[in-house]
Amino acid sequence: MSVPLVDKHSEHDVPVDCLPTESQVEPQTTDAPSTMSRKESLSAYFTIAAAAFGLISDGYQNNLMTMSNVVFKELYPAEYTSSVSTRVSNALLVGDIFGMILVGFICDRFGRKIALVGTTVLIVIGATLGTAAHGAHGSPAGLFWFLTFARGLTGVGVGGEYPASSTSASESANEAMLKNRGPVIVMVTNFVLSFGGPLAVLTFLIVLSAAGENHLATVWRVCFGIGIVLPLTVFYFRMRMLSSKLYRKGAIKRHVPYKLVAKRYWRSLIGTCGAWFFFDFVIYPNNIFSGAIISSIIHNGDVKKTAEWQLLLGTLALPGVFIGAYLCNIIGRRNTMMLGFSGYIIFGLIIGCAYDKISTIIPLFIVFYGAMQSFGNLGPGDMTILTSAESYATAVRGTCYGLSAAFGKTGAVVGTQVFTPIQTNLGKKWTFIIAAICGLAGILVTYFFVPDMTGVDLADEDRKFVVYLRDNGWEGAVGEDDEQSLVDDHSSLAKIGEQ
Question: If you average pLDDT over every residue of the chain, what do you get?
């Protein structure tokens, strides 16, 4: 049973008060036939691919400071203090938070395309400024303040990519490959984000080998400059993309009833925000400062050797992404996330309780460290993105996703800010023990608050959401007409969810 919506500009307008009750809305099966035109189908696949290429740029930017911190410490041992390192590293994360909230709102109210193009432009501008950063009269302090600004601006674009790319990709995957929506979204989001770590380190190693360790200033600038190129690879496709059918039929661009949204989704928001907070609290400081941790346990280790161990660590973290993508349809999103958080408990306690012994055996330390990171990718790394993209109606998907991701980045900022003080005052082992505590907290939040949308058509929640709004007295238009002229098939614009 398909529930008609109010499309302000369609000849098929149906008043909201003619809709059935929410309990009468029947779920769509995963075998529903597709009515997508060829142009819409191609746009859906290109949107999914563009999300992957866009987010790999984010992954690169997220991990760019891993080896840059090591280089800056070599070049400016007196000026690049722990507080300066934390400030420069956190700038991207602070920008992320603003970008996630702002662009999440924009992609719901003004369209996915506007949001995606805007984030691409911001990343290019920020990365260009970072590459060209200089302090007045060669001042190191000025250089690091310049980098702080540039990384913050880049962060706004990087953060905006999360809601813009993930929501557009999830909607396109729902229309083009509903049964495999979960694994596909994992692969085009968390896999490429995670691959950004090894990519950033591999790029560093190649540039370092070409320039030599006596030209570290050239090395970091070239690595920053490559961050300009990556987002440009998707700019053309984003200019040509169509909004998803789900968005065109389910968007609410005016008079959005945010109080009703909060009333309906408060429980889901606690789940997706909380799980993402605990995940990023652990993963981000460990990604940013893992190079410094490895450097500290390598006796007489140089920058290149540190980078090689870092590359191995990043590679060991990748298998978890594939395992999570495989399991999410089999055991469900919620169980997969809890399984991943349990890895933090197991390996966090192993490394933390035996840190003094394990850290003297570098290969063993890297294997355990990589296993902990891999479990993080398997569970919350894959599933926070997926559940945040699936748990909310299309009309507010970007906004709720952006809020969830912003809470995650708040956890990253807090974790990064306290990481060095914890190491200094409590000892390095406590960073891993606290990771285990976060794993337990993540399991509890996931179990009690995260909804499991395994196998559910996103259009089902859209229908239920509009009926819920009607039942609570909301009156307004649902759907947008801005891009109908670009679509070949107009006949189904008045109905949501018919595939």
Answer: 84
Alpha-carbon gap, residue 100 to 98, rounded angstroms: 6
Q: For residue 493, give the DSSP letter.
A: T
Residue type, 177: M
Dihedral class, residue 136 (left if φ above 0, else alpha if ψ from -120 to 50, else beta): beta
On whether the CB atoms of residues 172 and 311 are closer than 8 A, the answer is: no
> Measured between alpha carbons, how far is residue 401 from residues 269, 366, 367, 464 in Å?
9, 33, 33, 19
pLDDT value at residue 195: 87
Assessment of whether the complete model's pTM goes beyond 0.90: no
pLDDT (tens digit, 9 = 90+) per residue, 399-444? 999 999 999 999 988 988 888 888 888 888 898 999 999 999 999 9
Output the pLDDT for position 299.
67
What local confidence, expressed as pLDDT, does residue 20 receive?
52
DSSP H helices, 110-139, are: 112-131
Handedness of CA 116, 121, 122, 126 (dihedral sign): positive
Helix (H, G, I), strand (E, B) or coil at 4: strand
DSSP class of residue 31 equals T
Output helix, strand, coil percentages for the chain, rounded to the nearest 5. Answer: 75, 0, 20
Is the pLDDT confidence value at 11 over 70? no
Q: Rounded to whole angstroms, how far apart are CA atoms 270 and 102?
A: 20
Least Cα distance to 307 among 135, 66, 142 occurs for 66
| Spatial distance between the Cα atoms of 376 and 344, rounded to a whole number of angstroms | 7
Structural contact between residues 412 and 93, judged by C-beta atoms closer than 8 angstroms:
yes
278 vs 415: CA distance, rounded Å? 9
Angle at 193 between CA 80 and CA 341, to 5 degrees: 95
Distance separating alpha carbons of residues 343 and 336, to the nearest angstrom: 11
The answer to whether residues 463 and 28 touch, using CB atoms and an 8 Å cutoff, is no
- HSE value, Cβ hemisphere, 13 Å, CA-based, for 82: 11
pLDDT confidence band for 301 (50 / 70 / 90):
low
DSSP code at position 379: I
What would the pLDDT profile of 53-97 be if each residue is shown by its tens digit?
888 888 899 888 888 888 998 899 888 988 888 899 889 988 999
Reported in sequence order, the residue ranges of 237-361 that DSSP labels E, i.e. its strands, are none
* Vertex 284 angle, CA 282 and 286, to 5°: 70
Closest CA to 392 of 269, 227, 282: 269
Question: pLDDT grade, residue 486 (50/70/90)?
Answer: very low
